Amino acid sequence: MHDKLTIERIEKAHPLIREELKQYYLEVNKKLPKGVRLRFSHVFRTNEEQDDLYAKRPKVTNAKGGQSIHNYGLAFDIVILFDKDGNGTFETASWIVDRYFMIVVDYFKSHGYEHGGDWKNFKDYPHFQKSFGRTWRDLIALPKLKDDNGIEYPIL
User: What are 85-143's pLDDT values in tens digits?
Assistant: First the structure.
């Protein structure tokens, strides 16, 4: 079973990782027990959305607009959903780093994704990215290609 909202968000990921993200999302959900599901809470973010997050207190990010790998469609954040009532609604969200969270972390790391929980200065446990060895400074300087969804992505 999959989360429609997550699939819609994956459609805004960089075209280079979009199909693998769909596949990995479906596969990792099969590793989670009944009543537990993965959701991508964020994938692509505009610079304006990133600036809004940067301004939040308490601090949730060190990245201004253009400085986040999300701004290039190469990152996603996760949340674990629970179906507490057993009725298929999956209304309870958790960002706790528990065994279910770690199933997802281990899975994506095994497929080459960098995990924000491994960062030294600012731990970002829900964050994953695949930047292909490029920094935001590299990505911002690359030529862009506008996709069918109207988003400009760096040409990698």
Answer: 888 889 899 999 999 999 999 999 999 999 999 999 889 999 999 999 999 999 999 99
Structural domain boundaries in the chain: 4-154
In DSSP notation, the chain reads: ---HHHHHHHTTS-HHHHHHHHHHHHHHHHHSPTTEEEEEEES---HHHHHHHHH-SS---SPPTTSSGGGGT-EEEEEEEE-TTSSS---EEE---SHHHHHHHHHHHHTT-EEGGG-SSS--TTEEE--TT--HHHHHHS-EEE-TTS-EEE--
Distance CA 95, CA 92 (A): 10
CB contact burial 114-153 (16+ within 10 A = b; e otherwise): bbbbeeeeeebbbbbbbbeebebeebeeeeeeebeeebeb
Fold of 4-154: Muramoyl-pentapeptide Carboxypeptidase; domain 2 (3.30.1380)
> CA-CA distance, 37 to 122, in Å (whole number)?
26
Helical packing angle, 99-110 and 15-31, nearest 10°: 140
